Amino acid sequence: MVKLKKYLNKGLIEAGCDEAGRGCLAGPVFAAAVIMPENFDLPLLDDSKKLSKKIRYELRDEIVATAKSWAVAYVDNRTIDKINILNASFLAMHKAIEKLDKEPDSLLIDGNRFKPYKSIPYSCLIKGDGKYSAIAAASILAKTYRDDFMKKIHEKFPCYDWINNKGYPTARHRQAIFKMGITPYHRKTFRLLNNEMRIDL
């Protein structure tokens, strides 16, 4: 396991930011912002995609207990359809940063693009969730809180199998859209079906 870096710029209050759910056909995009203390020890901390569900939830509890400040926010599917998924991801990150107890000196953003928040300096870091602790922590919070949301709405619409696919475009999810149509949680601007399938939205 690669050891994650605890900071990019020593001495600054850095908030790591990441999102979850950009590639989904249904549900919101979630984002988290996390400020970790200088001295913390979470040996299993890593990019959420590399961790088992059990470890992700265990780490979430530890991050929430350990972080100097943390926040989670989301932007719903209707807004995603209005402003597009990239802008919705930035908006979700902005909402999470705004909810932090303290304003960070710098933002560490997972990915290669970001829309500035206020005048806070930021660094875009490709695959940053596998390089920096604060971004990894944010990836875990965004992922687990979004999974919880999708599990909850799965109970209303079980045929779409959101409890397993979390809204991603699996064959079973697309087959359910083809047979049953869409729900109020689907993103109408996304390609909901494969080329051989047709549906009237």
Report on this model:
It is a single chain. This protein is α/β, with parallel strands linked by helices. It has a single domain, classed as Ribonuclease H-like superfamily/Ribonuclease H (Nucleotidyltransferase, domain 5, 2-Layer Sandwich), CATH 3.30.420. The chain is 35% helix and 15% strand. It contains six helices and five strands. It has helices at residues 53-66, 77-83, 85-98, 133-154, 162-165, 171-180, and strands spanning 14-20, 29-35, 69-75, 106-110, 122-125. It has a five-stranded mixed beta sheet with strand order 3-2-1-4-5. Helix 1 packs across helix 4 (133-154) and helix 2 (77-83) crosses helix 3 (85-98). The model has no long low-confidence stretch (mean pLDDT 94).
